[in-house]
């Protein structure tokens, strides 16, 4: 199948061809038609599947360039992803005239971001904390936001942004479509779709909640104060073991 069959307009097809994309990836083939129809979408897809282009290209097609206010909001967990999505959109919109995007994330000057938002942007790409800050300062108007993308929703919930996501979804009162992407579909992610999405179509690429086939998963439940002793047993028992230990906090990492 080619991108031409997906009802994409010329400026988008030109950008796809400039990028060297000839064939849609499975998530793109399934999501692009639904997004163009403005259907709510629950996309189960990992990074590397082409999901940014899956929502980026059809979103650009839906934007009305003559209306200079935020029409779309893309919320993602980290500053790195925020910048990557914004950069991708910059290349995708090369042939779409006068569409403005702005990345808003923590750790950078908020004044500069407020100034750029004031100039009038169509698409805002944001991390949750900074977005809430801007909403509280009344620096961003969500009234006319029609499209909301939640990217890496499971990661955002893992990072404790649940209340922020609820706040954003509650305060985009004229939201017409919501597109949620997540590598895994735990009950917390399903709860968002149940509470805020309208009969979403589910698209899954690859296997749900899958790990590599050659990885064996084992776990043990121990009282918190015994966890390092238990970990040492695992290591003692597997003297040739190489591995990475993940901890919740910086201090835990130091201690381990
Ligand atoms: P993502 O999953 O959005 O992080 O994208 C993974 C990578 O695939 C990015 O480097 C994209 O540039 C690339 N990509 C996305 N869609 C296509 C496509 N249809 N054909 C070839 N490469 C693609």
Model description:
Helix content is 42%, strand content 12%. The protein has a seven-stranded parallel β-sheet, with helices on both faces. The model has no long low-confidence stretch (mean pLDDT 94). Strand 3 (101-104), helix 5 (110-118) and strand 4 (123-126) form a beta-alpha-beta unit. It has helices at 10-19, 26-36, 51-62, 79-92, 110-118, 128-136, 153-158, 162-170, 187-196, 227-237, 250-255, and strands at residues 41-44, 72-75, 101-104, 123-126, 147-150, 177-182, 201-204. With 256 residues, it is an alpha/beta fold. The N and C termini lie far apart (51 Å). The radius of gyration is 21 Å and the shape is globular. The protein binds adenosine monophosphate. Adenosine monophosphate is lined by residues 21, 23-25, 28, 47-53.
């Amino acid at each position: 199948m080619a991108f031409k069959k997906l009802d994409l307009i010329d400026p988008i097809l030109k950008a796809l061809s400039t990028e060297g994309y000839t064939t849609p990836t499975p998530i793109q083939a399934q999501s692009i038609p639904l997004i163009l129809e403005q259907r709510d979408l629950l996309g189960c897809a990992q990074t590397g599947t082409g999901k940014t282009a899956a929502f980026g290209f059809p979103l650009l097609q839906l934007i009305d360039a003559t209306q200079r206010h935020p029409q779309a909001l893309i919320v993602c967990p980290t500053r790195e992803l925020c910048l990557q999505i914004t950069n991708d959109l910059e290349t995708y919109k090369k042939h779409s005239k006068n569409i403005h995007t702005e990345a808003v994330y923590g750790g950078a000057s908020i004044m500069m971001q407020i100034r750029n938002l004031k100039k009038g942007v169509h698409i805002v790409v944001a991390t949750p904390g900074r977005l809430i800050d801007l909403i509280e300062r009344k620096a961003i108007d969500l009234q006319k936001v029609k499209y909301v993308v939640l990217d890496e929703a499971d990661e955002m919930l893992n990072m404790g942004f649940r209340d922020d996501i609820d706040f954003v979804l509650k305060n985009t009162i004229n939201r017409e479509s919501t597109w949620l992407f997540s590598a895994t579909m735990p009950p917390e992610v399903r709860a968002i779709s149940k509470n805020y999405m309208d009969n979403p179509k589910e698209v899954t690429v690859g296997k749900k909640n899958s790990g590599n086939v050659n990885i064996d998963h084992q776990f043990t439940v121990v009282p918190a104060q015994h966890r390092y002793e238990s970990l040492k047993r695992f290591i003692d028992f597997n003297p040739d073991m190489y591995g990475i230990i993940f901890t919740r906090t910086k201090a835990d990492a130091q201690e381990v």
